[in-house]
Design a protein that fits this description.
By secondary structure, the protein is of the alpha/beta class. It contains 8 helices and 7 strands; from the N terminus they run βαβαβαβααβαβααβ. Helices cover 42% and strands 13% of the residues. Strands 3-2-1-4-5-6-7 form a 7-stranded parallel beta sheet, with helices on both faces. Helix 1 (17-28) packs across helix 8, helix 3 runs parallel beside helix 5 (117-145) and helix 5 (117-145) packs parallel to helix 6. It starts with 7 loop residues before the first strand and ends in a 9-residue tail after the last strand. The protein binds nicotinamide-adenine-dinucleotide. Nicotinamide-adenine-dinucleotide binds next to helix 1 and helix 5.
């Protein structure tokens, strides 16, 4: 028996990176999964089905309230309930460039004094409002079920580490971290636990190609004592812990698989 045998998990950002690895890990532990993403989730569905679990992909823009509600409704329609939710959908910058690349490019084009308002707003829209609307839809369903649940928000070590040139991202992830704590308080007596994972630099498309960019990789490793990137699977393992009863007395916490970033 896997530790999520018979459970149903909804995962945003499930088409790629940490969301995909989490879907696969949860399926290995016996869960069926519902994947919401702007991008095509077919490959994740295939990987889950290879493990003989069921997976449904729902094209979802998490900045749309209707889409977030429809994603949870699809899980209920397909599997009858939702036990676990992982909000992994996120962006680094409005332009798609990673923060490390932006910082390593030097100059102050991405500093607050120069940043474009819409670029800032876009990151908050996806990373904060998108997570709030995902969490709200999940929590409403879990409250209706009446037997608890686990919500896991993918924040970032950048929720606590200020990075020059990455103000929208840092602010958004600090927002996710605070949202996690407030929701945990509000739901503490319901059996619904709300926690966060705050990854350090992790090898996913979000920071794609970083190893080929000496300046960007050097900047990332200068604040990563283990001197390597994390893997999506290492983030998925933290999500698994927070999804199961192994963490039954934990709510409002953030785990940092981050290569030692918080040793200082
Ligand atoms: N990779 C890292 O180094 C790192 C570090 C810290 C935190 N994170 C966080 O981890 C989470 C997952 O990122 P990842 O590294 O797997 O990157 P990724 O780019 O591989 O995956 C992000 C996914 O989110 C989806 N997405 C983006 N905007 C969306 C929207 N509006 N609606 C629905 N889906 C949307 C993308 O299509 C993509 O599939 C993000 O929240 C990211 O900020 C990543």
């Amino acid at each position: 028996m896997g530790s999520l045998q018979g459970k149903v998990a909804v995962i945003t950002g499930g088409a790629s990176g940490i969301g995909r690895a989490t879907a696969v890990r949860f399926a290995q532990e016996g869960a069926d999964v519902v994947l919401g993403d702007l991008a095509d989730g077919t490959e994740t569905v295939r990987l889950v089905e290879k493990l003989e679990r069921r997976a449904v992909f729902v094209r979802t823009d998490t900045t749309s309230e209707a889409d977030c509600d429809a994603l949870v409704a699809a899980a209920v329609a397909e599997f009858g309930r939702v036990d676990v939710g992982v909000a992994s959908a996120g962006i680094a910058t409005a332009a798609g460039m990673s923060n490390v690349e932006a910082r390593a490019a030097g100059g102050d084009a991405t500093h607050v004094v120069n940043i474009d308002t819409d670029a800032f707003r876009k990151v908050l829209d996806v990373n904060v409002l998108g997570v709030m609307m995902t969490d709200r839809a999940l929590a409403r369903q879990m409250l209706a079920q009446g037997d608890g649940g686990a919500i896991i928000n993918i924040a970032s070590s950048a929720a606590k580490i200020p990075l020059a040139g990455a103000s929208p991202y840092c602010v958004s992830k600090a927002g996710v971290w605070m949202l996690t704590k407030v929701m945990a308080l509000e739901l503490a007596t319901t059996g619904i636990r709300v926690n966060a994972v705050g990854p350090g630099y992790t090898a996913t498309p979000m920071i794609g190609g970083i190893e080929d960019n000496a300046a960007a990789y050097g900047a990332a490793m200068s604040i990563t004592p283990m001197n390597r990137l994390g893997t999506p699977e290492e983030q998925a393992a933290a999500c698994l812990f927070l999804a199961t009863d192994e963490s039954s007395f934990m709510t409002g916490q953030m785990l940092h698989p981050a290569g030692g970033q918080f040793t200082g």
